[in-house]
Amino acid sequence: MTYRTIRQRFLLSAGSTVIMSLLLAAAANSQASTTDYGSSPRAASSANAAPGSNRDTDVQMHFWEQLTLEPKDAWSQLRDSFQWREQSLSAKAQARVDEWIDYYLESPENIAAITRRATPWLAWITQKVTERRLPGELALIPFVESSFDPGARSHRGAAGLWQFMPRTGDALGLVRNGHYDGRLDVITSTKAALDYLEMQADQWYEGDLELSLAAYNAGAGTVNKAKRRAERQGLKGEYWDLSLPQETMQYLPKLLAIATIIDTPERYGVSLPDIHSEPAFAKVKLDHSVTLAEASRLLEVDRSALAELNPGLLNGTLNAPSAQTLLVPEDVDQQVLAELSNGGNDRRTVADGSAPATYRVESGDSLSVIASRYDLSAQELMRLNAIERPEALQAGQLLTLSER
């Protein structure tokens, strides 16, 4: 049973056609995805466990959140968005799904580990999927692709939650340089993945997202050839009719299997972690560079927490214009976020009116000048900021001015 997009997409522009050409070229050399589970259930490898207000203001409340008498968690919202649970599969297709259900249930600790790893991201990804009126099952693609590890890298070069290959990411506009990899940035890569799935579905498959998922994994060229071959044999050319590479043959069954388990976890004896219905992070738009160490001091947030939320920052520094958005924990104070967004020059002051806590270095500044301005010695300023060479001071750098 196929799924056609509910909204009628506008005709692809010339720019989209160029992008699709680039994507086809990228897919010809490598597959777009890599999984942790191998090409068949029995050959699959186990996933490693990983530990896992201010709201994302651009997210609108969904109608069921306004009508329900009891607040829902992220899992309930995800289940509400499922659209494929009622599809009627052939006995052969259902057997392929059931085989993966059995496989996952052999290692429930892996399900627990992956779902814990999904904690920061699941509510936000689910909201982005449902905003597009897409099947909620697509929010679980990172389960199949990367075990919900935003820093995942495959031996073939795919990276991030959505496991984009370099050339595919390039074609979708995901910036890569020495400071930043957009494939690892959950915000940008999620948008790119959903755009890619919808664009392929409209371009090649008349809105059929199951075929688009196959193309996401194997490349549109591979799927198109298999589709034409099936149609010549008198078949409809749907996903379940196609003869594809083994990994792609297992791709949709795996996705439907984990969706089935999450839909009724009590039936399968699976315990899911508590995940709040709202995103676990806030977004700060920046037009200046900042290091995670600087942001950690200003926001009074552990640096490792910022690093976990911002895996795309390869050297721990947000360098505009490569990246403009920093993710921070949802409970960070709004005033402090505004200070960070403004470059740190609206610095907090203590109640008694003493010196500010931080200073943003400006062009022409020197350590001695800054130190004397705030009644510090240059040596003390260097110690507070772990500066080894005074001449390494750079405009835009955020300095802490006290032990507070």
Automatic annotation (TrEMBL):
PROSITE patterns, per the entry: LYSM (PS51782), TRANSGLYCOSYLASE (PS00922)
Source domain of life: Bacteria
Biased composition (Low complexity): 34-54
Keyword field: Signal
Family of the protein in this entry: Belongs to the transglycosylase Slt family.
Record's signal peptide: 1-32
Annotated region (Disordered), positions in chain: 34-55
Domain (LysM) ranges: 357-401
SMART domains recorded: LysM
Pfam families hit by this protein: LysM (PF01476), SLT (PF01464)
Provenance organism: Vreelandella gomseomensis
Protein name listed in UniProt: Transglycosylase SLT domain-containing protein
